[in-house]
Design goal:
globular; alpha/beta; 20 strands; about 30% helix
Length: about 525
């Protein structure tokens, strides 16, 4: 039985803690904040409640496996999980709207043909067939296994180029195109292009530079469905926290780790800002790997031949601007849980979030991001959940949009934040009837300086969209969470915890579950 110190109480860190505790280890979690869950936050006020982080769960099998492996109670006995149907409604710049059924390929095909015109469903379905090839090729190395030592082979994009007939026969070579190039070439219709690119934007990717393999993002959603937890995603974080406590994991909140203790060349515990030292045989860092050198007296936890920590927006890390709306009036019958209102000018939006070019390796001129566009893409969440409202004559609605984490706008400036909130509310009027007149109050949640949202790891583009491995070059020190392999998102964070636990329990030569 080893002593294990976990830095941070985010979802990946808690997933690792629960699994390690079940394996017989003594696990202590040190969190500098006041609560658990990391980005999975909750705002409660006047009987209203809002998710301030992820609003839906994809790949629920990750958490089903976690709860089965860490106790007798399955996930569904700890939280009330339900499919969201339709999975989403999309309102495009020309006013066209389509509702897409949950986890139904045929249903999506038919809905797109009916709303956008004959042939649109087939083009979308054909793209997702190719996305499935990319998913099948990378599911294990990019989700279920530790990052390969020879990670450069994942720099080749697994998304297949469209087969074409010609003088020299048919070709299906892997593509080197970006997601935006694939969208324009294969989808043609600008509304289908917007649909594909909105999935990338939701995960923090610039479609102008993201690899074509980012097409796995809508594939995952359409194949495995969109799921909601009664009480919001915070209820899932609470259930995981309670599972950890039931397995004797200890938590210390308000406990900032100031350094990682090393002894005989390996991690040997953590030193807190208040001077306390907690010895351990293993240290699991649930923080961005880019922050690790500050805890290691400047030492780099990764070698020159490994995937290095990055936090730039061009490789999948933007910020989210959130507005929580308390509304008078009941949620109308037939209201959709999630509506995406697409930007009127997608090109202007991408410049506003990512800058004036899709440059890789160096910021575009003027830095990341520019002046926000007047009508950005806004995701509107309207859960039909009595726990989110004081009574049935009121409704809790959450608006989110991707914004630049760096640039000319100071999101902490009250006037700038309120102006952006006004833009989001105006756009969201296309999803909520009479929205402006129904607002009782709103709370604006601009991104903090360090509130980047990491996306999942993707293959292609020479490995620039991979995340640092869970193993570091310092024995006994492991990295977990959205900034580490296999990247961000609730499901990927949960898998990160599974991978770290597997490495500690089975040894560094472990290659993942079979």
């Amino acid at each position: 039985m080893a002593r294990i110190a976990v830095i941070g109480a985010g979802m990946g860190a808690m997933a690792a803690a629960a699994r390690l505790a079940v394996a017989g280890h003594r696990v202590a979690v040190f969190e500098r904040g006041a609560t658990h869950g990391g980005a999975v936050g909750r705002l409660a006020r006047d009987g209203f409640a809002f998710d301030t982080g992820p609003g839906l769960l994809h790949l629920p099998a990750v958490y089903r496996d976690l709860f089965v492996k860490t106790g007798r109670e399955p996930l569904e006995s700890c939280v009330e999980l339900s499919q969201v149907d339709p999975a989403s409604r999309h309102v495009f710049a020309d006013g066209t709207a389509v509702s897409l059924p949950n986890a139904s390929r045929a249903g999506v095909h038919g809905a797109l043909d009916e709303a956008l015109g004959a042939g649109c469903g087939e083009r979308w379905s054909a793209l997702l067939v190719r996305a499935r090839e990319a998913w099948d090729a990378t599911r294990r190395p990019l989700l279920e296994e530790p990052l390969w030592p020879d990670w450069r082979v994942l720099g080749r994009d697994p998304y297949p180029a469209v087969r074409r007939r010609g003088l020299f026969g048919r070709s299906a070579r892997p593509t080197t195109a970006t997601l935006a190039e694939v969208a324009r070439r294969e989808l043609v219709d600008p509304r289908l292009v917007a649909l594909l690119e909105s999935h990338a934007l939701a995960y923090g990717f610039d479609p102008r530079s993201a690899p074509a393999s980012a097409a796995v993002l809508p594939y995952m959603e359409q194949t495995f469905g969109s799921w909601y937890v009664r009480g919001g995603m915070r209820a899932l974080a609470d259930a995981l926290y309670e599972r950890c406590r039931a397995r004797k994991v200890t938590f210390a909140f308000g406990a900032e780790v100031a350094g990682i203790v090393e002894k005989d060349g390996r991690a040997a515990g953590v030193a807190l800002a208040d001077g306390q030292v907690h010895e351990a045989e293993f240290v699991v860092a649930g923080i961005a790997p880019a922050r690790l050198p500050a805890l290691l007296d400047g030492r780099q936890p990764y070698g020159a031949d490994e995937v290095r920590p990055v936090d730039a927006p061009e490789v999948g890390a933007t910020a989210r601007f959130t507005v929580c709306l308390a509304l008078r009036g009941a949620r109308e019958p037939g209201a959709v849980h999630r509506t995406v209102v697409h930007a009127a000018d997608r090109a202007a939006e991408l410049v506003g979030v990512f800058g004036d070019g899709p440059g890789l390796g160096a910021p575009p001129s003027g830095g990341w991001g520019s002046t926000p566009c007047a009508r950005p893409t806004v995701t509107v969440l309207r859960p039909d959940d009595p726990t989110t409202r004081p009574d049935d004559d009121h409704e809790a609605v959450t608006l989110t949009a991707a914004v630049a984490p760096h640039g000319p706008v100071d999101w902490l400036d009250g006037a700038s934040a309120e102006a952006e909130a006004d833009r989001l509310v105006e756009v969201a009027g296309a999803a909520v009837p009479g929205l402006a007149e129904r607002v009782l109050w709103r709370e604006v949640r601009p991104p903090a300086d360090d509130a980047l949202v990491p996306g999942p790891a993707l293959a292609g583009r020479d490995g620039r969209f991979l995340r640092p491995g869970n193993r570091t070059r310092i024995p006994g020190l492991y990295a977990v969470g959205g900034w580490s392999h296999p990247g961000g998102g609730l499901a990927h964070a949960g898998m990160s915890g599974a991978l770290v636990a597997g490495l500690i329990v089975n040894g560094d030569d472990w290659h993942g579950s079979t």
